[in-house]
Amino acid sequence: MQIIRSLNALRAAVRGWRASGERVALVPTMGALHAGHMALVDAARRRADRVVVSIFVNPTQFGPNEDLAAYPRREASDAALLEAGKVDLLWAPDVAEMYPEGFASTVSVRGISEGLCGAARPGHFDGVATVVAKLLNQVTPDVALFGEKDWQQLAVVRRMVADLDIGVEIAGVPTVREDDGLARSSRNAYLDPEQRLIARALPRALGEAAAAIGRGEAVAAALESAERRLIEAGFVGVDYILLCDAETLVPMRAWAERPARLLVAARLGTTRLIDNLAVPAK
Ligand code: PAF
Question: Which residue in 8, 28, 267 sits closest to 170, CA to CA?
Answer without folding.
Answer: 28
